What does this fold into?
Amino acid sequence: MRFVLITALLLTLSSPAQADFQDGWAASLKGDYATALREWLPLADQGNADAQNNLGFMFNFGRGVTQNAAEAAKWYRLAAEQGNANAQYNLGIFYEQGRAVTQDTAEAAKWYRLAAEQGNADAQSNLVALADAGQGVTQGAAAQGNADALADAGQGVTQDAAAQGNADALADAGQGVTQDAAAQGNADALADAGQGVT
It folds into this structure.
């Protein structure tokens, strides 16, 4: 599992807050986490979910700050509650692993589901993995890792997981994608062969 640091750069700088966020982003890419912290902390305190998620990452991995899982969970939760899909995914990992929170696979599934509903492929994969293990999701077809059943049941796995490049998760879930084709990432060939990718 991996934690997600915001990877998309904002296309325009229409406000000082966005400029500060961008300055923090540029600094973090150079490994200058002290500057990133200086730029992002005021934004996070003002409720900027992207800055909050990034502070969660910094505290989670000790980038420019003392590593502190409880502080990371605090920032991830603040961002997740505002609907930040990356923070929802990250908070799901904390609940699944019991990092700075009580381990709770149902709570992990809740956060993965919220992130997955926004198209986060990693959250979709983790939700299927929980279903495979019979943890935190509805039993029955969902517990067998059936991504279509999860989607139909509103369990956070979108029908277009293959279109998002998540063929491995579909193959793991037994959704008609062969392991070889999934490893090759060849969605067109799979669709042409009637292998469950539309």
